[in-house]
């Protein structure tokens, strides 16, 4: 089979690899689509360290190839929870599987989905491997993971009906947050991004207003927001989130930071702000699949374009990517 293999900072190459075989409790999946995530770009840039050589990619859909798990037969369409919990530690027993102390991370600690075939350890039906309803396409299933990230961040913001919410960064996660905030009945959603194309997409997704970072103060007109969700992971966006959140409001940090971020703590204390981290998902993963099946959200609408596996290295090193992209899917079968 072919796979896009990461060898070190700035170095990813497509090369033949042996087809993986499943052990007991595992499956292999013929990958239909795998999304390029910001964390993949951070790995490629060297700010996130992983073992090498490694196949990246964790936002995937496909069909079961071989199975050593009851209830999963070859040909079954699936998507996979990429953060594979042990199921026995205190966090897992408490339902906080994203904080498992013995987690296996597809595309970060073991080979991921930028390949024709992926091996999935800890394959448990309805827990780590989800059979796709007929109404959920392979393309939509490949964005379940980032949609679940956005759903958790939007939920942790605690914004209520009539509240004003601010979303900083309108990539895939920001766009998902906007969609879920709009579904929750929040009064006004303001989106911020440097890309005019992404701002336009944010408005189409349900944002009431969208602007560049330099225009935010004027757009808000001095009126604070009840909740600010930073999806950009930049020191300037964190500062803006704190600056524009009103008394008793919530600042959600949902980005990948990888650096020190200066924050004016007097503002946090004086306005009694709640600063809330948001990491991945737990039950949200399954909830998103249900929402896609009901038609509550259109997963395919988040996809900017499709590329072949041979094009994956140029997307990972950004030479073939665009700031306007929301979600790029790698299609190994192409």
What's this entry about, in short?
Keywords: Oxidoreductase. By secondary structure, the protein is α/β, with parallel strands linked by helices. It has helices at residues 38-45, 90-93, 138-141, 144-157, 172-184, 196-205, 216-220, 235-244, 265-270, 284-294, 312-316, and strands at 2-8, 11-16, 27-35, 54-55, 59-67, 77-80, 83-84, 104-105, 117-120, 129-131, 164-168, 188-192, 209-211, 225-230, 245-253, 274-277, 305-308, 328-331.
What does this structure look like?
Keywords: Oxidoreductase. This is Threonine dehydrogenase. It comes from Patulibacter medicamentivorans. One of its GO terms (molecular function) is oxidoreductase activity. With 334 residues, this protein is of the alpha/beta class. It folds into 2 domains: 170 residues, Medium-chain alcohol dehydrogenases, catalytic domain (Quinone Oxidoreductase, Chain A, domain 1, Alpha-Beta Complex), CATH 3.90.180.10; 128 residues, NAD(P)-binding Rossmann-like Domain (Rossmann fold), CATH 3.40.50.720. The protein contains 11 helices and 18 strands. Strands 3, 5, 6, 9, 10, 17 and 18 form a 7-stranded mixed β-sheet that branches. A 6-stranded parallel β-sheet has the order 13-12-11-14-15-16, sandwiched between helices. The protein is globular, with a radius of gyration of 20 Å. The chain starts with a strand and ends with a strand.
């Amino acid at each position: 089979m072919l796979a896009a293999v990461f060898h070190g900072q700035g170095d990813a190459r497509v090369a033949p690899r042996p087809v993986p075989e499943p052990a007991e409790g595992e499956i292999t999946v013929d990958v239909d689509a795998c999304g390029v995530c910001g964390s993949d770009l951070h790995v490629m840039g060297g700010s996130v360290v992983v073992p090498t050589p490694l196949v990246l990619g964790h936002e995937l859909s496909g069909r079961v190839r071989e199975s050593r798990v009851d209830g999963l037969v070859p040909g079954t369409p699936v998507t996979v929870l990429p953060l594979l919990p042990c199921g026995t530690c205190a966090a897992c027993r408490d339902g906080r599987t994203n904080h498992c102390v013995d987690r296996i991370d597809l595309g970060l600690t073991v080979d991921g989905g930028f390949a024709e075939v992926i091996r999935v350890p800890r394959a448990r039906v309805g827990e780590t491997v989800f059979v796709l309803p007929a109404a959920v396409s392979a393309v939509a299933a490949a964005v379940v993971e980032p949609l679940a990230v956005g759903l958790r961040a939007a939920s942790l913001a605690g914004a209520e009906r009539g509240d004003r919410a601010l979303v900083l960064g309108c990539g895939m996660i920001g766009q998902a947050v906007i969609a879920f905030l709009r579904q929750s009945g929040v009064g006004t959603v303001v989106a911020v991004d440097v890309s005019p194309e992404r701002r336009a997409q944010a408005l189409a997704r349900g944002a009431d207003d969208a602007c560049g970072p330099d225009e935010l103060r004027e757009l808000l007109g001095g009126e604070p927001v009840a909740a600010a969700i930073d999806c950009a992971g930049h020191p300037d966006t964190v500062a803006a989130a704190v600056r524009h959140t009103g008394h008793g409001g919530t600042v959600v940090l949902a980005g990948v930071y990888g650096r020190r971020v200066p924050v004016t703590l007097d503002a946090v204390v004086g306005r009694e702000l709640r600063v809330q981290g948001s990491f991945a998902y737990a039950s949200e993963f399954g909830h998103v699949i249900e929402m896609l099946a009901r038609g509550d959200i259109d997963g395919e609408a988040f996809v900017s374009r499709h590329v072949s596996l041979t094009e994956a290295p140029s997307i990972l090193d950004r030479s073939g990517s665009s700031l306007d992209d929301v979600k790029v899917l790698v299609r190994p079968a192409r």
